[in-house]
Amino acid sequence: MRYKVLGDPMGREITRNFWREIVLQRSYATGGSNGGNGSWDASLEHWGAPTRLSQTLTDNNQEYCTQYNIMMVSRNLFQWTGDAIYSDHYERAYYNGALGNQYPNTPGVMLYYTPLGNGVTKKKGAWAGWGTPFESFWCCYASGIIQWSKMGDSIYFHQDHVLYVNMYVASDLIWDSLGIGLSQTSDLTRVNSTIQIKIVKSRGEFADIRLRIPYWATGHNSVTVNKKPVVGIPVPGSYLSVPGNWKSDDVIDVHFPMSFHLDAIIDDPHRVAVMYGPMVLVGLTSQNASLRIDGDEMEECFSPVSEFKFRILRKCLEFGEEFEFIPLYQTVDQVYTVYFLNKSGQ
């Protein structure tokens, strides 16, 4: 906080280096970290040596307090630098940590760790699993409650006449200084979700609306204003500037088709998590299954079952029976596996 309070550039560099050490060297596909990292003793809660994550996949990964606080570091670094890499990490942690840390329909039940091992579950256990409404007030209860009270605090940022759209979450915004009101309709938790931003109030002032192009948006991206294509190329991991003197009823339509991709754990290129857009998909299985998936052919390996539920086809398994994949945040008490050995290309 030295940079935030005193403006000391050394403080910013220390924070940036800390972020690199944790996010780029000690984090999982989920954006979470710690919980026995770098140690065979799964009861230890710490950050271990860098790039040793494949040894740590167990039932006490990803302590939520840690994930929450690294999200706050990412938020601060974005505000200081404007770099999309920090917003990409925030989104990854939002969907694969924050959304899944509260037991559905049961107030007061939160998650301490998110298990990332083979055949694991969030059911209550010695060191992992759901807490209780009255007897489990861990530190992660506090950070989890705080996060759920501020799920909208990093959707938009502004500086002078620039508005950054960082998260694609249904929301309304009143930008008082420029007299602009907008409404965003979107839901990335639905397959083929559309994103639309409509100006609902304006006094005609100039504003540069900058849309984050997520790292995972590698398909045929498009952005239009009132159905006319925007000048510029939506490059993943950057921002697309859409300037204008906005009028009421102007509409920005954004299309970032989500697709399957693999995210290898940092120290083993053959141990991978399956992702769809920013979401980690987990296999609902405890079998020691191995995949045989080429990245360019992933769409042919999964058959849709229902909204955001896919079945992996036998042709894309080295061995084992077919099973289903769902987003990690949707798991409650199911048994699941996050990382799989992928034998394609070996």
Give a written overview of the molecule:
The protein has 346 residues and is an alpha+beta fold. It is 18% helix and 29% strand. Strands 11, 12, 13, 14, 15, 16, 17, 18 and 19 form a 9-stranded mixed beta sheet that branches. A 6-stranded antiparallel beta sheet has the order 3-4-5-10-7-8, with no helix packed on it. A hairpin with a 2-residue loop joins strand 1 and strand 2. The model has no long low-confidence stretch (mean pLDDT 90).
Keywords:
alpha+beta, six-stranded antiparallel β-sheet, single chain, globular, 19 strands, 346 residues, nine-stranded mixed β-sheet
Give me the secondary-structure topology.
Layout (H helix, E strand, L loop, with lengths): L1 H5 L2 H16 L39 H18 L2 H13 L42 H10 L7 E4 L2 E4 L3 E7 L4 E8 L7 E7 L4 E8 L8 E4 L2 E2 L8 E8 L5 E5 L4 E6 L2 E9 L2 E5 L6 E2 L10 E5 L2 E4 L4 E3 L4 E4 L11 E4 L4
Parallel strand pairs: 2-6, 14-19
Antiparallel strand pairs: 1-2, 3-4, 4-5, 5-10, 6-9, 7-8, 7-10, 11-12, 12-13, 12-19, 13-18, 14-17, 15-16, 16-18
Helix pairs in contact: 2-3, 3-4, 3-5
Question: Nutshell version of this structure?
Answer:
By secondary structure, the chain is an alpha+beta fold.
The SSE string, one letter per element, is HHHHHEEEEEEEEEEEEEEEEEEE
Oligomer: single chain
SS-based class: alpha+beta
Mean of residue pLDDT values:
90
